[in-house]
Write a structure and sequence with these properties.
globular
């Protein structure tokens, strides 16, 4: 049932796959942005920390998420 799916939490195998993809496919600023987002930082906070514009942070985040989704087979390559 839906309640069981919600209560069971995230699939540990899928989480490990995502972690592996992030560590092997994502590098540089994109990795930094994903790491800081996973720590709960906002785009504005990340921009201040990395000394780049908020729009650059958003762009890095969008590109990183696309690369992860493609690597996991969730999105077709452009």
């Amino acid at each position: 049932s839906l309640g069981q799916l919600i209560c069971s939490g995230p699939d540990p195998i899928r989480l490990a796959q995502v972690r592996d993809v992030i560590e092997t496919v994502i590098t540089g600023r994109k990795y930094q942005v994903l790491l800081l987002r996973s720590q709960g930082k906002t785009f504005a906070e990340i921009a201040l920390l990395l000394e780049i514009s908020k729009s650059a942070v958003q762009s890095h985040h969008r590109q990183a998420v696309r690369r992860v989704r493609r690597a996991l087979g969730l999105e077709a390559a452009a």
